[in-house]
Amino acid sequence: MVPVLQALVLAEHVYEDKSGSKIIAGTFNSAIIRERKTPQPITDDDGNAVVDGEGNRAMSITSGSSGAPWAYISLTDVCENTELVLQFVSLTKNIVLFGSKLTVQRPERLKTVEIVAKLPDLPITEPGAYAFEIICEGEVIGSH
After folding, report:
1. Cα(74)–Cα(84) distance, rounded to whole angstroms?
2. pTM of the complete model beyond 0.70
3. Residue 58 reports pLDDT greater than 60
4. Secondary structure tally for the chain: helices H, strands E
5. How far apart are CA 58 and CA 43, in angstroms?
6. DSSP 50
7. What is d(CA 76, CA 108) in angstroms, rounded to the nearest whole number?
């Protein structure tokens, strides 16, 4: 029996406060990655150069990496020892770029199970369509 996916949220960061509540910051559903070989000046909304406290111009270098996001996953109807796979897929080429297995040990079946996962840098090397998928028993139960 596969669990019910209630949420799959990608974010810049997911925090947990003292009470156990999750704080999801900087959600996103797409990324634009530009590769630059040389540093580019950073400007404010008026086009003025941004400088630090010592008068140095702020520069930006984009390496082609989208960075390391976080995933927030919420499930219910989860049986004991349920194995899940969170994978990052190139939909353009139909290949899995990375995957990670998760096992939910002893849930109370009707309660919500929250999983917070720090993901590695996303291996995006070319334009295309990509997705995070959650797999259970060989079936995609959710995708983003």
Report:
1. 12
2. yes
3. no
4. 0, 10
5. 8
6. P
7. 9
Token pair of 98 as six digits = 């990375």
Q: Tell me the pLDDT tens digit for each residue of 70-91.
A: 999 999 999 989 999 999 999 9
Q: How far apart are CA 73 and CA 6, in angstroms?
A: 8
The pLDDT score that the predictor gives to residue 125 is: 76
DSSP-derived pairing of the beta strands 4-16 and 22-27: antiparallel
Torsion sign, CA atoms 136, 85, 110, 25: negative
DSSP secondary-structure letter at 122? P
* CA 29/CA 10 separation, integer angstroms: 7
Q: Which amino acid is at 123?
A: P
DSSP 3-state assignment of 44? coil
Structure token pair of residue 79: 């049986």
**By C-alpha distance, which of 139, 124, 143 is closest to 31?**
124
Q: Which residue has the higher pLDDT, 58 or 143?
A: 143
